[in-house]
UniProtKB/TrEMBL annotation:
Organism: Miscanthus lutarioriparius
Cleavable signal peptide: 1-28
Localization: Membrane
Keyword entries, A-Z: Signal
Annotated ranges, domain Malectin-like: 37-215
The protein, known as: Malectin-like domain-containing protein
Cellular component GO terms, alphabetical: membrane
Keyword presence, 4Fe-4S: no
Membrane-protein topology: Single-pass membrane protein
Chief localisation class: membrane
C-alpha cells in the first residue's frame, strides 16, 4: 500500500538541483516537530547536544531492527567532534535499509539532513560509496572517500505526500552503507516556493557570506541550527 503510493511519486521529476548562496537555509515556523537522530547510538536514552542544545534520540525505533552499531575509530575522535559522528549504524545485510520518520504533517514542507563520517569504524580503512534515497527518489550518492574523518552532509527540502517519510541506504556494491545522523525540521510553507509535492530541492552547497565571527561557520554542526 505504502510502496505503491511512493511508487507513484517516482515518475515525477520532483528533484531540482539547487545552488544555494545563503547563510541561513531556512526558518522554521515552529520549534516543535524536530526529529533528531544519532544513528548508531545504543540504548533508549536521548541526550542534549552541547552545541545545538537539541535533543538527539537513538535510532533503533526508526529502523527495521536492521544494521549494527559501531563507534568510529578512537583515532578520529577529537574534542570538537559532534556526538552524532562518534558512532554509526552500518548495514551489512540487505540491499536496501530504511529509516522511517513518522507523525509528519501531510503537505508540510520539511528539511531533511543526513550526515556521514566513516572514521574507519570497521577497521578496514575502506570508505564505502552507496546511494541515499528519499522514498524511491534518489537523493545523493554518498562517497565519503578520503580522509577517514571527512564528513558528508546531504540535505533536501521536500513536501511530504504522506504522514511519514522513508530515508533509505542502498548498497551499490562499493562497500557497506552506514549513517551517522538523520534530522528533520519543519519549514514555513512560504519559503522555498519552488518546492511542492512533485518537486524538491537538493543542497549542492551553502556559503556564509560575511560571517561576523572569524571562525569558519561552514562546519556541519554550525549548519545544524540554521533552520531553527
Ligand atoms: C562506544 O563508545 C562509548 C562511549 O565512549 C562506550 O561507552 C561504548 O562502550 C563504546 N562501544 C563499543 C562497542 O565499543
Ligand atoms: C569517490 O570519490 C573518489 C575521490 O574523489 C573518487 O576517486 C571515486 O571515483 C569516487 N567513487 C565513485 C563510485 O564515485
Ligand atoms: C510544482 O512546481 C513545478 C514548477 O514550478 C510545477 O511545474 C508543478 O506543476 C508544481 N506541482 C504542483 C503539484 O503544484
Amino acid at each position: 500500500m505504502r510502496q505503491s503510493k511512493l511508487g507513484a511519486l517516482a515518475a515525477r521529476p520532483w528533484l531540482l538541483l539547487l545552488c544555494l548562496a545563503l547563510s541561513r537555509a531556512a526558518t522554521a515556523t515552529e520549534t516543535g516537530g524536530f526529529i533528531s537522530i544519532d544513528c548508531g547510538l545504543p540504548g533508549t536514552t536521548s541526550y542534549v547536544d552541547d552545541t545545538t542544545t537539541l535533543s538527539y534520540a537513538p535510532d533503533a525505533a526508526f529502523t527495521d531492527d536492521a544494521g549494527e552499531n559501531y563507534n568510529i575509530s578512537a583515532a578520529h575522535v577529537t574534542p570538537e567532534l559532534a556526538r552524532i559522528y562518534r558512532d554509526v549504524r552500518s548495514f551489512v545485510d540487505g540491499a536496501r535499509n530504511c529509516y522511517t520518520l513518522r507523525s509528519l504533517a501531510v503537505g508540510l514542507k520539511y528539511l531533511l539532513r543526513a550526515s556521514f563520517m566513516y572514521g574507519n569504524y570497521d577497521g578496514l580503512n575502506r570508505p564505502p560509496v552507496f546511494d541515499l534515497y528519499i522514498g524511491v527518489n534518489l537523493w545523493k550518492t554518498v562517497n565519503v572517500s578520503d580522509p577517514p574523518d571527512a564528513r558528508v552532509v546531504a540535505e533536501a527540502i521536500v513536501v511530504v505526500p504522506d504522514d511519514f517519510v522513508q530515508v533509505c541506504l542502498v548498497n551499490t556494491g562499493s562497500g557497506t552503507p552506514f549513517i551517522s545522523g538523520l534530522e528533520l525540521r519543519p519549514l514555513k510553507s512560504s519559503i522555498y516556493p519552488q518546492v511542492n509535492v512533485t518537486q524538491g530541492l537538493v543542497l549542492l552547497g551553502r556559503r556564509n557570506f560575511g560571517p561576523t565571527a572569524s571562525k569558519s561557520t561552514s562546519q556541519p554542526r554550525a549548519r545544524a541550527q540554521s533552520p531553527s
